[in-house]
């Protein structure tokens, strides 16, 4: 049995599926959340040696977003309009923003435009059109700040 292969797009989707319950359930471990996300579409996640297989990039995204959640949220707050508070953002959209900003700041081989485009694709699938536009607007401003440094 070979290890399943995932595209980076699929891994971002799995990261979103793992991070969403982690935001609500403080007793859930990162590893359990990743396992549940991988099992959602009945993916075979056992490698040839009988060990559970977790794609490295998935572990990096979920762990990185969890570890830097407060920092990522501060960046998001900084780029919200005057009438907005981070508590008004739908959880799914907030997690999409966190993943994209983490990639922009900490994943060197992912261009910022790719992180932005991938976030928009996730928002299209998991949110509505207004959310997609909101995610696009916030991330475009974040990207502008990052690129100007």
UniProtKB/TrEMBL annotation:
Keywords: RNA-binding, Transcription, Transcription antitermination, Transcription regulation. Residues 10-144 form the NusB/RsmB/TIM44 domain. GO terms for cellular component: cytosol. GO terms for biological process: DNA-templated transcription termination; transcription antitermination. NCBIfam families: nusB, PRK00202.1-1. It comes from Enterococcus quebecensis. This is Transcription antitermination protein NusB. Belongs to the NusB family. Involved in transcription antitermination. Required for transcription of ribosomal RNA (rRNA) genes. Binds specifically to the boxA antiterminator sequence of the ribosomal RNA (rrn) operons. One of its GO terms (molecular function) is RNA binding. It comes from the Bacteria. The gene is nusB. HAMAP family: NusB. InterPro entries: NusB-like_sf (IPR035926), NusB_fam (IPR011605), NusB_RsmB_TIM44 (IPR006027). Pfam families: NusB.
């Amino acid at each position: 049995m070979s290890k399943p292969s995932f595209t980076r797009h699929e891994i971002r989707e799995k990261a979103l599926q793992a991070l969403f319950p982690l935001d609500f359930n403080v007793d859930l471990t990162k590893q359990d959340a990743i396992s549940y996300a991988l099992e959602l579409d009945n993916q075979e996640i056992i490698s040839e040696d009988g060990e559970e297989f977790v794609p490295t990039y998935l572990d990096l995204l979920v762990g990185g977003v969890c570890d830097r959640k407060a920092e990522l949220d501060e960046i998001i707050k900084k780029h919200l309009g005057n009438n907005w508070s981070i508590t008004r953002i739908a959880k799914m959209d907030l997690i999409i923003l966190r993943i994209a900003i983490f990639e922009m700041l900490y994943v060197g081989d992912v261009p910022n435009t790719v992180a932005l485009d991938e976030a928009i694709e996730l928002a299209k699938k998991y949110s509505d059109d207004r959310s997609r536009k909101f995610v696009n607007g916030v991330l475009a401003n974040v990207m502008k700040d990052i690129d100007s440094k």
